[in-house]
Design goal:
Number of strands: 13
Radius of gyration: 19 Å
Low-confidence stretches: 174-186
CATH architecture of the largest domain: 2-Layer Sandwich
Number of helices: 11
Order of helices and strands: EHEEEHEHEHEHHEHHEEHEHEHE
Mean pLDDT: 92
Distance between the termini: 31 Å
Helix content: 40-55%
Strand order of the largest sheet: 10-9-8-13-11-12
Length: about 280
């Protein structure tokens, strides 16, 4: 029996890669005032970042159980098993929506096999986990082994990122108004990471060039077998610095396999334009 791989739009994977590996996606909601959008479907991140630069504030909401139920029913009716590789439950209720939908569909199809993986990851960190899961499915591994390897991959995914303007983190409740104002005046760039599924400040660096160098140092400290990995880089409409980081990593560690993609609306609404995020395995 075939296995379908499902994720949500917080995974920030390139559409071409999703098509190549037959990955299905459930979009999260994005709101601009009273206007409702579907992340990556009716609103693209370049439009979102342009609006944010003009001062527009966006809010986000989880994907609803009904969206998952529709997709799950489609898989079950077609005799396809499923693995959903989802956005961190510490950052969104989207994973819980999938849990609700799974139980409803199982009432109709009790023998249907479905596995849900709460990655505790976000953006391309989640995306890399999805990518590897899809590769293992394509290799023909059984669902139980795909789940085991996917969970291990998620547990060892590093997220190292910086934002260009602390104002966006202030709006999301991540830093105080005072910290945001001082950071803007002093050109302070925070480095954050993900710990137990949550965004956690790591340290502060002054200036964009210095922060990219520090991200490289953290990668050296935490990464393992970097040359053999697929490295993820996502960015808030800042391809120039994303490419600069990629070339530095290539030179420093000999890495040759990269996935670079803009941050989607669900994550970008909170991180803001100019964000640079780096993802790699620590084991």
């Amino acid at each position: 029996m075939s296995i379908r791989v499902l994720t949500d739009s917080a995974s920030d994977l390139p559409p071409a890669l999703m098509q190549e590996y037959n990955i299905e996606m459930i979009p999260l909601y994005v709101f601009e005032g009273d206007k409702e959008y579907l992340d990556g479907v009716t609103l693209k991140s370049d439009k979102l970042f342009d609006a944010m630069r003009r001062g527009q504030v966006f809010k986000t909401a989880q994907a609803e159980p009904a969206a998952f139920k529709e997709r799950f029913l489609e898989f079950a009716k077609n005799g396809q098993n499923c693995i959903y590789v989802g956005f961190s439950s510490e950052l969104s209720s989207t994973y819980q929506s999938a849990v609700i939908a799974r139980e409803e569909v199982r009432e109709q199809y009790p023998d249907w096999q479905i596995e849900l993986v709460d990655t505790k990851c976000a953006s391309m960190g989640q995306g890399l986990v999805v990518y590897h899961a899809a590769r293992w499915v394509k290799e023909g591994l059984p669902l139980s082994e795909v789940v085991e390897k996917t969970v291990h991959c998620a547990q060892h995914m590093e997220h190292i990122f910086t934002v260009d303007d602390l104002e966006y983190l202030y709006r999301g409740g991540r830093v105080s108004r005072t910290a945001a104002m001082i950071g803007g005046i002093l050109n302070i760039k925070p480095i954050l990471h993900v710990e137990d599924g949550r965004l956690v400040p790591l340290e502060k660096v002054r200036g964009k060039n210095k922060v990219l160098r520090r991200m490289l140092e953290i990668m050296r400290e935490r990464g393992r077998n970097l040359k053999e990995q697929t490295i993820g880089i996502s960015h808030g409409d800042d391809l120039e610095n994303a490419n600069k980081l990629m070339e530095a990593i290539r030179k420093e560690f000999g890495c040759h396999d990269f996935i670079i993609n803009p941050i989607g609306c669900a994550v970008g609404a909170h991180a803001g334009p100019g964000t640079i995020a780096l993802f790699f395995q620590n084991a």
